[in-house]
Amino acid sequence: MEILVFFLAIALAFAAYKVIRWNARLVAFNVKSDRQRKFYIVLFLLLGIAAGVFFSGLIYSTSEKTKIMGFPIPAAGWERWGSGWVDFVGTITFPITTANFFFWVLTVQLFAALVLRANKRPRHRRARGQ
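and the corresponding structure tokens:
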């Protein structure tokens, strides 16, 4: 199971890399200034990293006795037994946390790509014969 999650994390990282490159081309097409291009590329990248860090380390409660870390794939869990918390952290926790991180980096990049694609500047064609 750990190896499958590891390959999932690698696949998500590769997909995020490809979408980041695609976003760079879309930004280059939509924005004329080099300074603005760099700003938007860094902005989208930082937003993806921030979402990845936030959601991969997110700890939320499903009940009074249970806490879970990681969204959308739970990476670790805690359960209240008596007066203390018992953790369920294993060898698969790190690969799942990594997969969650790259999932959110990819999600933000895909959203940015959709916004950039929707706001694409129209190309002006010259009429024939001019």
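(Above: one complete record from the training split.) The CA atoms of residues 32 and 121 lie 11 Å apart.
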